[in-house]
Amino acid sequence: MPRRKSLNNQPCPVARSVDLIGDRWSLLIVRDAFDGMRRFGDFQRNLGVARNILSDRLRKLVDAGILTTQTASDGSAYQEYVLTAQGQSLFPVVLALRQWGEQHLFRPGERHSVLIDRNTGKPVPFMAPRAGDGGTLAPASTEVRKVP
Question: What is the pTM of this model?
């Protein structure tokens, strides 16, 4: 199978982001890390992904600075994968995907997992981009200024 062309040199931030975290396994690993998973075996069991693919994605996420490895917190010989500050900053991305999925991929009344604010015990409110004046920012109110 031919190797896909890297988008690493693209002037578009979306292209570079998708190049790094846009495949399903990488995003699901990040999601699981937000849910508290840290060990290879836990990721593998939860995702059902082949070990070689999981190993490759974890390595790429570590190399990119999204995850870091550390000695297991229980003192065992295992290593753990932990989100870095850069990885933590992916939270709004994961939240936006979750909320889009809740709105468009479930029938009314269909059960699904819910993200809860630990401080209030209530579901996390819908996230929307805000304009400079605090109002909701609509796609039609934006434009991309391409690099000449």
Answer: 0.88
